[in-house]
Amino acid sequence: MDSIVRRSAVSCLITVSLLFSSGCSKEATNSSGADTGKKVVRISIGTQDQTINTVTGGSVIREGKLLEKYLPKTGKYANTEYKIEWSSYTSAPPLTNKMLANQIDIGMMADFPSTINITTFQKKGNGVKTKYIATLAYSPNGAGNAVVVPKDSPYKTLQDLKGKMISVPFGSSAHGMILKSLKDAGIDPQKDVTLVSQSPEVGGSSLQKSQIDAHADFVPYGELFPFRGFARKILDGAQAGTPTFHGVVVRSDFAEANPEIVVAYLKAVLEANKLFREQPEVVASNIQKWSGIEKEVVYMFLGPSGIQKLDPRIQSYQLTALKNSVTTLKQIGKLDASVNPDDVATWADDSYLKQATKELGVSEAELGTLADQNVIGGKDALTQEPITEPKLAAQVWVKGEDKVVNFASIKNMVTALDKLKKEGKTPSVVFVHDRTNGWKLFAEKSFYVQNGDEVTAFLLEPDAQAFAEKAGTKVADFNGLQTLYAQSAQPAAIAAK
């Protein structure tokens, strides 16, 4: 501890020109330059506003001033003035660079960038490390990462991409996903395809100009590009079956000097999660204003039965994701061979989260229950029957309306769409769910099988074909499904949600 104190003191002296360093303080002055007697503490937080898995650690806290609500104001903080600095980045590498330069104290990033962040500090941190202290959003099977092609592309599977050019942000979770998926498909990433590094922005532009054959990316671009109409998804990261997450890392010197502030930040995360569960449409609409990512895509990922779970706990899923990232990053030469995947458990420190939940009176078990119960429920807007099976449910968000409307079945949703059309109303988005895995899907881009009165949706056409063969029926696209039911649908009033 003495060595930490000495390092912190030296750091304060060296970085005073940067105003304040982690754990350092300075006496505040008023406009006339007089000393106010207050200690000023800098809290610098780096997020990724467009990477919507970070929003409950970033923009929701920032715009709602939730951190200010929980910052300590007694004891050693009784005469403290907080200087909260927010910055947003389109990817994690610059965030890590600024953390290393002691310009950011708390950062948010996915599993692969977190691995690079933590191992970089181990080498270059001069005794300072970074700790993984909480999860923001995660998928136990990799949903959120995806491979997309230009909308008019003839390619439908990874096998079609042999000999083609695929872009991906190198060192990202999507990079790991595409490498594993290619190998699983019997494609050698070194010989059978050309992989090039492109950021989401560049990859999107390249897709629109048909300068690449496919683009692999992380949240939210695998859904955002198809929603914007210039791309089509051919592989979902969930098919790789490996966990992925976005989480919070913090500089160890800042956390050790200001544990109460770290706890306050995690309390703000817990409140941001609560806001999303209770008002998903409102929060999604706000995030559209703050990030430019359409509310429908935000809701798709983090709303009820969303693609990713909002659960702050550090679980086996996250440790597995970190282990996978170590293995893959070593394979592609982005990580020193000496890094042991079994060491990742030592990178995690959930003591701050445990303290935050204790002070808020919430148990860790409750956090898991809240995440698991964030699924579609209530009553069907058409029939008023209870919605008991989220995987078979459907949702419609009508343009100009504040609330998403829920249906117990795809059949009821299609019937309701016909009536909405006659009333001159237009849906901005329609959601269904993959029958097997429950993944949230865009209805118009899914495949359907009718088996008696039941209609189920699938992400992948081969899965739908296999199910249809067993049922002795055929696969339909969304237009075909609407035509089928429009002929027999009876007008019905859609009740308020």
Automatic annotation (TrEMBL):
Q: Gene3D superfamilies under this entry?
A: Periplasmic binding protein-like II
Identify the stretch annotated as signal peptide in this record.
Answer: none
One Pfam match: NMT1
Reading the lineage from the top rank, the first entry is: Bacteria
Cited SUPFAM superfamilies? NosL/MerB-like, Periplasmic binding protein-like II
Q: Which residues form the Solute-binding protein family 3/N-terminal domain?
A: 54-294
What protein family is recorded?
A: Belongs to the bacterial solute-binding protein SsuA/TauA family.
**What name does the UniProt record give this protein?**
ABC transporter substrate-binding protein
